[in-house]
Specification:
340 residues; mainly beta; 24 nucleotide stem-loop, u2 snrnp hairpin iv. U2 a', Chain A; six-stranded parallel beta barrel
């Protein structure tokens, strides 16, 4: 009986103990897979058991329709999918957990959807998805935790939805630029560290929500989103260095920043044609070196800046002009008093 128990225990241990991943290639290597046959045979060209390819993997070719033969990969140095594929959907990479440099998916004119990378958790340098005419949706990235550099989603003319990136905790730079069909942004809710956020020239963007656990960062720039009418993101932000909101046609109210206390360098609110009030800046008590509130022709309530102007006695570089009455100078805002 004891022997049988020991035998079962040994078999169980052998089953549980997995061999360590095998790596191959060097960071300076690159392989270009330009046909379905090369994709299908790629694993067989590597040393037996290799699941970590340290080099750069480039993929482009009109007859490539299936990327799932690459599901064996757990880690890759760099992944670059570009120019041409024989499919309108990128699927697969279901076991890929880590990319040592960056992931780029660019200029695939027939690409309509991405549904991949369900276990990717770490990208050291960045993710760049750009310049697709027909890309409508991006899904996947359900376990993405850290991006050491940038997340850029740009010039995707048909993109209407973004993944929520609900597990992402840290990224240096988020850029969402010139995605001309994008209607809403709602996500990044677990992010506690983002140094710079640029949301620019998304002409159909109506709602900007999310980023609700971000408390401190360096730059937030929201610019040229013509149809943006609802700005409710950044509800827990306490401090930043640069806050720029400008060139919007439809923005009437900034319904956020209620906890913002400090802007170290610049607050810029300009060229927002229909912005009527900025009352939610009441907690702001410290402005750094520059304040610009100009060319907002319907801005008639600036009481939210009363506390900041009264407390920031060192602030000398102030431009407040071309707004409605009581919002055209520091003195007018001070005389009008606190929000009632």
């Amino acid at each position: 009986m004891i022997r049988i128990t020991l035998l079962i225990l040994i078999i169980s241990l052998k089953t549980c103990i997995q061999p360590p991943p095998v790596s191959c290639g060097e960071s300076t290597d690159f392989i270009h897979l330009n046909s379905q046959a090369m994709v299908d045979s790629f694993q067989s060209t590597l040393p037996t058991g290799c699941t970590i390819y340290k080099g750069e993997l480039r993929i482009s070719g009109f007859d490539i329709k299936n990327l799932q033969p690459l599901d064996f990969l757990k880690e890759v140095g760099k992944l670059y999918i570009y120019s041409s594929l024989g499919t309108n959907t990128i699927k697969g990479f279901k076991n890929l957990e880590r990319i040592e440099k960056d992931l780029q998916i660019t200029a695939l004119n027939n690409l309509e959807s991405i549904d991949a990378f369900p276990n990717l958790s770490y990208v050291k340098e960045g993710i760049f998805i750009s310049s697709h005419k027909n890309l409508r949706s991006i899904n996947g990235f359900e376990k993405l935790d850290t991006i050491g550099g940038f997340l850029t989603l740009s010039y995707n003319k048909s993109l209407t939805d973004l993944p929520s990136f609900h597990t992402l905790k840290s990224v240096n730079l988020v850029q969402i630029i010139s995605d001309s069909s994008l209607v809403k942004i709602n996500g990044f809710d677990k992010c506690v560290e983002i140094k710079e956020i640029i949301i620019k020239n998304n002409v159909r963007l109506k709602t900007l929500n999310g980023f609700e656990n971000l408390k401190n960062n360096e730059t937030i720039s929201i610019e040229g989103n013509d149809e943006l009418s609802e700005l409710v993101a950044f509800s827990k932000l306490i401090s930043t260095q640069y806050l720029k909101i400008h060139n919007h046609k439809s923005l009437i109210e900034i319904s956020t920043f209620k906890k913002l206390e400090k802007i170290d360098v610049l607050l810029l609110l300009s060229n927002n044609e229909n912005l009527a009030n900025i009352t939610n800046f009441e907690q702001l008590k410290s402005l750094g070196s520059k304040l610009v509130i100009e060319n907002n022709p319907n801005l008639s309530d600036c009481c939210g800046l009363f506390n900041a102007l009264e407390h920031s006695t060192w602030l000398k570089d102030i431009t407040i002009k071309n707004n409605m009455k009581v919002c055209n100078s520091k003195d007018e805002i001070i005389v009008n008093g606190k929000c009632k």
